[in-house]
Write a structure and sequence with these properties.
Blueprint lengths: L1 E5 L6 H4 L7 E4 L17 E2 L13 H9 L4 E5 L3 E2 L4 E3 L3 E5 L5 E2 L4 E4 L3 E2 L6 E2 L6 E4 L4 E2 L13 H12 L11 E4 L2 E4 L3 E3 L4 E5 L6 E4 L7 E3 L8 E7 L2 E3 L8 E2 L1 E5 L1
Parallel strand pairs: 1-2, 3-4, 4-7, 5-8, 6-9, 7-10, 8-11, 9-12, 13-14, 14-17, 15-18, 16-19, 17-20, 18-21, 19-22, 20-23
InterPro entries: Pectin_lyase_fold/virulence
Protein name: Pectate lyase superfamily protein domain-containing protein
């Protein structure tokens, strides 16, 4: 799928592939023609180059992954995608998301073996219990990627986002990525998990990362149906728990390591 690599200055032909070309133009950027650092790994390719506007570009990401094949590539996710089948992003493909271009997983499984790049905005729409998400290369994931708010509002969405973070990689048999919190206040209602080996870490030591609730309930607890069970190896670091709104701070049924 690659036009023969050439040397020389970057020209307009290097960019045309981003907007409708059937192939990716591969240009060697250094004088050594055997050098593997090409424009494809420096400039992300808009996935719309591989989809169809008539389908609202919803086929774009899957088509782009197929076109890339085994080559190293960065794909720019610029339009929302709703899965119609399981999605596997191979290790040679990095995804960069722009705001508003989230993937809706639905009942399918989305597996990301390549690195995900995104800011603190929603890129994955998912409900635990339907479908699955596996993120196998990023060491950190952020609740905002799943729709959380860090301004002390949006409790239902933030609770759902943390629940989704805690359930990433259940089908991948891989180590869970660390849930990383940027400074802010995250309001949740009874984060419930039966999973082990979960790490929630606050970034930037001198800034406040608050995990709080305004209702009379635990902030973090273990449960299986109506029965409380023990959950081990929950690691929490550099986070302030605040149950002041409910008059309590609740952590139930968890073997917790707090730093």
């Amino acid at each position: 799928m690659t036009i023969g690599a050439t040397t020389g200055q970057i020209g307009v032909e290097d960019l045309n592939y981003k907007y409708g070309a059937a192939t990716i133009f591969d240009r060697v950027l250094r004088s050594d023609p055997t050098d593997t650092e090409t424009i494809n790994r420096i400039m992300p390719t808009d996935i719309r180059a591989f989809g169809t506007e008539a389908n609202a570009w919803n086929d774009a990401l899957a088509a782009a992954i197929t076109a890339v094949g085994a080559e190293d590539a960065k794909l720019l996710v610029t339009v929302p995608q709703t899965l119609a089948a399981n999605l596997t992003v191979p290790a040679n493909v990095e995804l960069e998301f722009v705001p508003g271009a989230a993937i809706t997983v639905g009942a399918y499984t989305a597996t990301f073996n390549g690195t995900i790049h995104a800011g603190l905005y929603e890129i994955l729409v998912w409900t635990v219990g339907s479908g699955a998400i596996n993120i196998n290369k990023n060491p950190y994931i952020y609740p905002q990627w799943f729709g959380a708010l860090d301004d002390g509002t949006g409790e239902p969405a933030t609770t759902a986002a943390f629940t989704e973070c805690m359930n990433v990689n259940l089908t991948a048999n891989q180590e869970k990525p660390t849930i990383a919190l940027h400074p802010g206040t995250y309001l949740v209602k009874e984060l419930t998990t039966t999973e082990t080996d979960i790490s929630i870490v606050g970034l930037f030591a001198n800034a406040t990362k608050e995990l709080g609730t305004t209702t009379s309930c635990a902030i973090l607890k273990s449960a299986d149906g109506v029965s409380t069970i023990d959950v081990n190896n929950i690691h929490v670091e550099n986070i302030y728990f605040d149950g002041a709104g409910a008059g309590l701070v609740g952590i139930e049924g968890i073997n917790l390591t707090v730093i």
